[in-house]
Amino acid sequence: MPGLTIGDTIPDLELETTKGKIRIHDYVGDGYCIIFSHPADFTPVCTTELGMMAKYAPELEKRGVKLLGLSCDDVSSHKEWIKDVEAYTPGSLVTYPIAADPKREVIKQLNMVDPDEEDASGNQLPSRALHVVGPDKKVKLSMLYPASTGRNMDEVLRVVESLQKAARHKVATPVNWKPGDPVVISPSVSNEEAKQMFPQGFDTTDLPSKKGYLRFTKV
Amino acid sequence: MPGLTIGDTIPDLELETTKGKIRIHDYVGDGYCIIFSHPADFTPVCTTELGMMAKYAPELEKRGVKLLGLSCDDVSSHKEWIKDVEAYTPGSLVTYPIAADPKREVIKQLNMVDPDEEDASGNQLPSRALHVVGPDKKVKLSMLYPASTGRNMDEVLRVVESLQKAARHKVATPVNWKPGDPVVISPSVSNEEAKQMFPQGFDTTDLPSKKGYLRFTKV
Fold first, then answer.
1. Is the Cβ pair B151, A175 closer than 8 Å?
2. Do A207 and B3 touch (CB under 8 A)?
3. A13 interface with B at CB cutoff 8 Å
4. Interface residue B41 vs chain A (CB under 8 A)
5. Could you give the domains of chain A?
6. For residue range B122-158, what is the model confidence (pLDDT) as tens digits?
7. Angle in degrees, 0-180, between the axes of helices B44-62 and B75-88, rounded to the nearest 10
8. Thioredoxin domain location, by residue (chains A, B) (predicted)?
9. Which of A43, A171, A208 sits opposite B187 (nearest CB)?
């Protein structure tokens, strides 16, 4: 079925948004971008999500991450709906653009179609798809959630921190990792290299295989 | 690029696993199944993940959810590696099957390829892909994470609860929802129907649009 997955370059589409026309690659620029779809304006989960996205936007911005929303409603609908979004989540200001895809051209290309949902006219609707796009314009990570499941912005922030740590250091983040927790050193780094790269030191976990591959450090 | 996405039926492949041969549809049965890939045995993040999956398995089982792991290592490697996995996470017992895909046939079909990783021989490696498959054998939700980002089992449990609540009632879960929090009533349910379906009552949030679409209840 639809195509876009991790590792793919996001298509450089021109989008109509609440902030005017945007080309995706220009918008991503040299930073990261979270492009996410919502099923429809004036619907319950979406209203809670877009306000929370706005609340988290400053934390994301500190990390060089922009937000870009998208649904199949038109720009005038988005603008009316933002009043509800901001009213529901006090202190939220939707300063990020929300794109309009009434012709369903973008959602197909970005793997954002919800197969189980349609509008009153039988048109396709977007899922809750979320792609984290890196400075190289490639999809680094995707969450494909259905209309019924609102996203978890703490998880979104967690994976952004993980991706950025891995991009800066030769490390990865273990299961259930939270920002501030120790990270693991990539297997491609030898112990000799690790001593240079991580002068703060590292701890190797003793395992039955004695292979010494599980090395924790702090970065 | 590769295909499988939410709404698609998972291919009914026969897999070699640590628990013998398994056909995916038989294994899913009438319940849910989380099929997830890991890049490689005897690597750091994977070792932390598979032990944690084992720790969460009883909670998932209570909800009718089975686990099925997968990488491109062979079954004998998996069996050796499980000793490390269980040693690292005390109290974990890897009772779920781990499939072997040394020919890279399965990871392509299941959209589990990590485009940025390869083994010492230049072969493709799996990403940290995770698909929640429902009793109808369709993919309900996917997380496509790269090798660097270990998954969050609390988020996995959260989305399972959300999917199952939505399958049982005409509800959805708002942003950052946690089990026990109020849910929202689907827009397809009229207020009259909602009174019948939710005798415990519901609260309609007052929003600038006055459209009355944001209705919270407990189920």
1. yes
2. no
3. no
4. no
5. 14-150 (3.40.30.10), 169-217 (3.30.1020.10)
6. 999 999 999 999 999 999 999 999 999 999 999 999 9
7. 80
8. 4-165
9. A43
